[in-house]
Amino acid sequence: MDRVKLFIPLIIFVVLAAMLYWGLGRDPNAMPSALISRPVPTFQLPELGQLKDTEDTSLVVTGQPEILDETLFLGQVSLLNVWATWCVSCRVEHPYLLDIAETGVRIISLNYKDEVEAAQQWLEKYGDPYEQTISDPTGGLGLDLGVFGAPETYLIDHLGVIHYKHVGVVDDRVWRTTLQPKYQQLRNALPEAEK
After folding, report:
1. Helix H or strand E segment including 68
2. CB atoms within 10 A of CB 110
3. Are 124 and 85 in contact (CB under 8 A)?
């Protein structure tokens, strides 16, 4: 029995070394999502461009509100980019999104837990790569999507089904090696009438 006790530290070391080896081989940005192969969660939220802050911090709509819902993702392959003005990494990512959008890639944004006016000023100052921006000031849709934090980017097919989730900055390397091939694969699978 005493001899077995001598091997306990060795066994613990081997188990920890195996776990470390397994962990080092994984992509830290590859966060599993329960929504892969499932439709975008249902939602009804306003378009950011039509909102303004009031003194009591409630949201009001200028003119007739455009309420966006999950049908926004039907008919075209899209990227859904989760961002906020308080997110330092989002500022790093933004120029790459502008470049991607210029190539014709459809990007929808989810402005996550942010102040409306600050988000609008951000887009005016840095440019707007987004076809539309969903305002999610309470984070409800973000919670339904399983957002860990900003930035995150989801790849969604023309039927509104989520195919991939990227956590972290989308830069040139991530776009070329990961997102663009997956995006192109979904585009190639579109019926001819929808390309």
Report:
1. strand 67-69
2. 28
3. no
What 101-107 contacts at long range (C-beta under 8 Å, 24+ apart), as own/partner pairs, is 101/129, 101/130, 102/129, 105/79, 105/183, 106/76, 106/77, 106/78, 106/79, 106/131, 107/78, 107/79, 107/80, 107/81, 107/131
Overall domain count for the chain: 1
**Which residue is listed with tokens 């776009």?**
175
Question: Is position 65 within any domain?
Answer: yes
* 153, two tokens: 């980017």
Structural domain for 123, as ranges = 30-194
- Identify the CATH number of the domain in which residue 158 sits: 3.40.30.10
For residue range 150-172, list pLDDT tens digits in order: 999 999 999 999 999 999 999 99
Q: In this structure, is residue 89 part of a structural domain?
A: yes
Tell me: the pLDDT tens digits for 173-183? 999 999 999 99
**What are the residue ranges of helices labelled H in the chain?**
2-24, 88-102, 116-126, 140-145, 172-174, 180-188
Instruction: Tell me whether residue 20 is in a domain.
Output: no
- For the cut 60, the answer to whether the pLDDT of residue 53 exceeds it is no
> Which two tokens mark 123?
């887009």
Residue with tokens 């001819």: 192
pTM: 0.79
Q: Within a domain: residue 9?
A: no
d(Cα 194, Cα 106) in Å, to the nearest integer?
A: 14
The amino acid at residue 170 is: V
